[in-house]
Amino acid sequence: MTEGATPTWAGPLAGVRVLDFTRVLAGPAASLALADLGAEVFKIEPPGSGDETRDFPPIRDGESHYYLSVNRGKKSIVIDLKTPEGVQLAKDLAAQCDIVVENYRPGVMDRLGLGYAELSEANPRLIYCAISGYGQTGPLKDRPSFDIVLQAMSGALSVNGEPGQQPTKLGIPLGDLVGGINGPIAIISALYERERTGRGRCIDISLMDGMLGLLGYIAQLAWFNGEDPKPQGSQHPNLVPYGAFPAKDGSIIVACLTNSFWGKICEALGCPENTSDPRYDSILKRREAREEVNAIVSAVTRNYTVAELVELFTKYEVPHAPILGVTEALAQPQTVAREMVVEVEHQTLGTIPIVNRPIKFDEKQPKPAAPPVLGQHTDAILAEVLGLSADEIAALRSAKAVR
């Protein structure tokens, strides 16, 4: 931290307002990143149950684990967009915001009168980010999509799992979370452009595009070899040894990226002669002798516990890792040192742990606010942002525009 830094610095997007029409995961992950960076995020939720994930079990005291995971630091306002008064409120709020984020199917926001064309007339500086499964164009644009569908359609599912077995879904819902990566990148770029041009921009984020973009060297490998890469389990298609190896009490990950690491692995395993063995002295040769090399490593690792192997590989600077469960990963010393778990005060649940912001700066930000209960900030937003009186808010309640 910079000497003399203030503990109340909100973040680089302090003063930026976001009107958030998103729900479930892909969109909320994007607006979460903006909230983490200091933006003020107004999350519009429908009356009744709000964001669909508020009903996703397990639920404690009426609050869903799922909703809590991607809505820290946001403010919840309940508006019924099925009423003309509710739509007008949303338009009024958009006129006071810098950014709109939505993840409805293409065309839905336009039909509500809340698409980019209409909102930007009143607010030409508005940056509008539409996140959808397949994007705003193309033959699949109107098709519903979910994480596993996007994993399958992008080719990612086909390379995940053990050889000769059915493909396995990625444990992390990357097909959705990719929207939380690419959406904020595009939005922040548009904010920078707006400083020069004075105008906003419409952004089209496709989760399918995002997954294809993450294929990286897997795509190039398919073009180079003229065939589909096959699933390798925890192993790498070209690098050996690389993956999970047996221990007395479990498994350990070993990753050999270069020849220099091959030498370190051989030293650690007590077989330094294999470093220069002409059968194994290059990446290509080790790939061709995959089974032999893996057998050499496994023959030694299975005689040690995971803890003993961690100590041994640390000593020889071999890239490695124990395979931690989620609770253990969240409690490990590195996680604690980086303050990646913090406790916050939730309106219903009291003190709860949440995952902290993953981006750090040289000035310390305060703890993020707890995820909001449904409609927690409705009156405050209407009063502070739109300047509505108590009587005007009461009238909106009578019209069932807000709840």
From TrEMBL:
Superkingdom classification of source: Bacteria
Enzyme class: transferase
Organism for this UniProt entry: Novosphingobium anseongense
MF terms in GO: transferase activity
Keywords (A to Z) from UniProt: Transferase
Gene3D superfamilies the UniProt entry points to: Crotonobetainyl-coa:carnitine coa-transferase, domain 1, formyl-coa transferase, domain 3
InterPro entries: CoA-transferase_III_domain, CoA-Trfase_fam_III, CoA-Trfase_III_dom3_sf, CoA-Trfase_III_dom_1_sf
The protein, known as: CoA transferase
Keyword Transferase: yes
